[in-house]
Amino acid sequence: MLHNDTPNQIECETTPCISKGALYNLVICDSSLIFPYLKIEEISMDAYANRNVVAIFNCLQLLNSILLLAVLVPALFSTRVRRVRTWYAMVISGLVYSLCYMPLMILGQQTGPPPSFTLCLLQSCLIYCAPVLIISFTLTFVVELFLVLTRVIYGSALGSSTRTQILLIAVPSLIYSVLFNTTLLMGLQQDGTIERDQWDLYCHSTASSPTLVVAIVVLMEASIIIILKDVQGTSSVFVRRRYRWWW
C-alpha cells in the first residue's frame, strides 16, 4: 500500500488493482505514483472522457462517409438517375472532407505519443483546405444550374460547351491546390504551431493565419452563391409566368 501525507492522499492497494485488470493497474495505479498530488478519480475521469469524445467523433465521421456513399453510389451505377458533373464533384468533396479527419484514426495515433510532424502537418493542411473544396464545388454546381436556367430562358449554349464543363471542374481544383500549398508553407514556417488538438481528435495549427485565409475564401464564395441563388429565384419566377402565359 502506498501512503502519502499530503491532503490529496492517494492509496493504491496491490490486490484491488490486480483484480480490476492490467489496464486499470497501468492507468490508475501507475499514474498515482507519477502524479502523487492528483486524485485517482480526476485522472480516470479525464482519460475516459477523452476516449468517449474520440469514439463519438470517429463514429460521426464514419456515419457521414457512409451516408454520402449511399447518395453517390446509386447515382453512379443507375441508368435512370442523371446528374451533372458538378453534382458528383460536390458530393465527392463532402466525402473528402470527412476523410481528411481520419488519418489519425486509421493509423491509431489519436491516443498515446504525438504523431510525427509530417503526418500532423499533412492532416492540418487537408483539414484547413477541405471547406474550400466543398464551397468551391458547391459554387460551380450553382453556376451550372444558373447556366442551365439561362439556356432555358435565352437559348444560350454556354453551359453545355466543353470548355465550360472543364472550367467548372478545374477552377475549384486549382483553388484547392493553391490554398493547400499556402497552408503547407505556413506550417513549415511555423512548425511549432502544428500539434494534435486538446481532445486528440486530429492535428491542427494553433496559429490564426490558416484559419483567416480559409475563412476569407469561404466567405467570398458563399456570398457569390447567395447572389446567384437570388438571381435564380427571380429567373424561375419569370419562367413560370412565361410558360403560364403560353398555356
Question: What does it look like?
Answer:
- With 247 residues, the protein is mostly helical.
- 73% of the residues lie in helices and 2% in strands.
- A two-stranded antiparallel ribbon has the order 1-2.
What are its keywords?
single chain; 247 residues; mainly alpha; two-stranded antiparallel sheet; 8 helices; elongated; transmembrane helix; membrane; transmembrane
SSE diagram, text form:
Blueprint: H1 14-19, H2 22-34, H3 40-77, H4 85-99, H5 103-107, H6 117-154, H7 162-189, E1 194-196, E2 203-205, H8 209-246
Antiparallel strand pairs: 1-2
Helix pairs in contact: 3-4, 4-6, 6-7, 6-8, 7-8
Transmembrane segments: 53-75, 87-106, 126-154, 166-188, 208-228
Keywords: Membrane, Transmembrane, Transmembrane helix
- The span between the termini is 92 Å
Mean pLDDT across the residues is: 80
| Gross morphology | elongated
Poorly predicted runs: 1-43
Q: Please state how the strands of the largest beta sheet are arranged side by side.
A: 1-2
Order of helices and strands: HHHHHHHEEH
Number of strands: 2
- Helix content estimate: over 70%
Major sheet size, sense and barrel closure = 2 strands, antiparallel
Keywords: Membrane, Transmembrane, Transmembrane helix
Transmembrane segments: 53-75, 87-106, 126-154, 166-188, 208-228
